[in-house]
Design goal:
CATH class of the largest domain: Alpha Beta
Strand order of the largest sheet: 9-8-7-6-10-11-12
Bound molecules: NADPH dihydro-nicotinamide-adenine-dinucleotide phosphate, 2-oxoglutaric acid
Distance between the termini: 33 Å
Number of helices: 13
Protein name: Glutamate dehydrogenase
Helix content: 40-55%
InterPro entries: Aminoacid_DH-like_N_sf, Glu/Leu/Phe/Val/Trp_DH, Glu/Leu/Phe/Val/Trp_DH_C, Glu/Leu/Phe/Val/Trp_DH_dimer, Glu/Leu/Phe/Val_DH_AS, Glu_DH, NAD(P)-bd_dom_sf, NAD_bind_Glu_DH
Number of strands: 12
Keywords: Oxidoreductase
Domain Glutamate/phenylalanine/leucine/valine/L-tryptophan dehydrogenase C-terminal: 193-424
Pfam families: ELFV_dehydrog, ELFV_dehydrog_N
């Protein structure tokens, strides 16, 4: 890595996902022309808040959890990005996720900066009441940073519409007004948007159509393998299957299932709702070892779980044509290079999974105007934005002979740094 700046609060020997992001910035810097004098801005999060989140457990004991909200860059608008509840959340991870939000929001040109939050907790170990108390306490602890024109959280791994409803209500209690625009991804009955739940998976499908057309892959009959069967992976599976693709493999933390002729996705959703995971699905041909997932031959691979799944070792083994990054940060920079050598087309996270924040933007706009669009209107607008963002990135990639990831960073970082430059530095 060529970057000079290592934050004193991270382990210099293992920067984790933040190091992965810094390497991506280093690749874009030579393409930024006169704006490159501002590039250091992208390597320093604007604001980091670490909070202690204490709750009373159901058994009367007090438990403490570590929470974060990071605002990476606010040059183009208020902070925007999800909140993750996961036992492996770290500051490095939340920093990287917040930076990827800055890039993503600029790539699809929604008027936001980048932010992200998280709590280091395994929510499966909490009762519903404990989860609600944790969410409310966390919201209270970060309430000085968030707000409809300051920073707008949304769902991410292990958070959902219910968690957003609790966040909105806690913030409303502190502010003394309704403030629907403080979070997105809310239930539709509380000012949420039609289509938000499916938006990220739908966006993955739209860029998948664009990528497949350019690679000469027909979606009807295409072999699709998906890691993660939550909001993003589960929705993508449904939409790809509806388009005639065969979902030949799905992996979650409970197991890896395969069916050469294509899994019945509707039945799989029912099974996961009842059993809590894909393991034991009766409609599968076989269950594989975790690691064997990466050896399955596919036309399209969709990582839709967590970061750093596609390492150099995995990339060398992969037999696929197109990777659509539903997850944030699933591919390491070393793996990117190997995939480029193998001529695998990688549609990066900061483009491929931007459908979620795009419909979050629609939700925020609808909340401000108290006027709500139909689901067809939402989906049509989402499709237009994703197609147009993909087209712009594709053209830059062709012109500059760079990967789609670097091209997305060029488009997005140019927008961020132009805003930074025109605003100037001094208060
Ligand atoms: N929700 C959104 O709108 C957006 C999400 N993303 C990104 O998409 C990814 C998935 O998020 P989302 O779908 O919302 O999260 P969910 O919590 O809904 O689902 C996560 C899925 O990933 C699986 N998973 C977790 N760890 C592993 C693992 N080690 N191996 C295999 N599978 C695993 C989970 O399995 P299990 O249930 O068995 O633990 C679950 O199926 C994340 O990277 C997130 O940041 C990006 C943009 C927007
Ligand atoms: O919908 C949003 O505001 C953000 C979603 C998110 O966290 C992401 O795109 O990674």
């Amino acid at each position: 890595m060529t970057t000079d700046y290592i934050p004193s609060y991270l382990n210099p020997n293992d920067l984790g996902p933040w190091g992965q992001y810094l390497q991506q910035v280093d690749r874009v810097a030579p393409h930024l022309g006169s704006l490159s004098r501002w590039v250091e801005t992208l390597k320093r999060p604007k604001r980091i808040l670490t909070v202690d989140v204490p709750i009373e457990r159901d058994d009367g004991t007090i438990a403490h959890y570590e929470g974060y909200r990071v605002q990476h860059n606010l040059s183009r608008g208020p902070g925007k990005g999800g909140v993750r509840f996961h036992q492996d959340v770290t500051l490095s991870e939340v920093m990287a996720l917040s930076a990827w939000m800055s890039v993503k929001n600029a790539a699809v040109n929604v008027p936001y900066g980048g932010a992200k939050g998280g709590i280091r907790v395994d929510p499966a170990t909490l009762s519903k009441g404990e989860l609600q108390r944790l969410t409310r306490r966390y919201t209270s602890e970060i309430s000085m940073l968030i707000g409809p024109t300051k920073d707008i959280p949304a769902p991410d791994v292990n958070t959902n519409e219910q968690v957003m409803a609790w966040m909105m209500d806690s913030y409303a209690m502190i502010e003394g007004n309704l403030s629907t625009g403080v979070v997105t991804g809310k239930p539709v009955s509380l000012g949420g948007s039609l289509g938000r739940r499916e938006a990220t998976g739908r966006g993955v499908f739209v860029v998948g159509q664009e990528a497949a057309a350019r690679r000469g892959v027909a979606l009807a009959g295409a072999r699709v393998a998906i890691q993660g069967f939550g909001n993003v992976g589960g929705t993508a599976a449904t939409i790809f299957a509806d388009a005639g693709a065969k979902i030949v493999a799905v992996q979650d933390h409970t197991g890896t299932i395969v069916r050469d002729g294509g899994l019945d996705v509707a039945q799989l959703h029912k099974h996961v709702a009842e059993a809590g995971g894909v393991q034991g699905f009766p409609g599968a041909d076989a269950t594989l070892d975790r690691d064997a997932f990466w050896d399955i031959e596919s036309d399209i691979l969709i990582p839709a779980a967590l970061e750093r799944q596609i390492t150099a070792e995995v990339a060398a083994r992969l037999r696929t044509k197109i990777i659509l990054e539903g997850a944030n940060g699933p591919t390491t920079p070393e793996a990117d290079d190997i995939l480029a050598d193998k001529d695998v087309l990688v549609v990066p996270d900061v483009l491929a999974n931007a459908g979620g924040v795009t419909v979050s933007y629609f939700e925020w706009v609808q909340d401000f105007s108290s006027f709500f669009w139909t689901e067809d209107e939402i989906n049509a607008r989402l499709t237009r934005i994703m197609q147009s963002a993909f087209g712009a990135v594709w053209d830059v990639a062709q012109e500059k002979k760079v990967s789609l990831r670097t091209a997305t960073f060029i488009v997005a970082c140019t927008r961020i740094l132009q805003a930074r430059e025109v605003r100037g530095l001094y208060p």
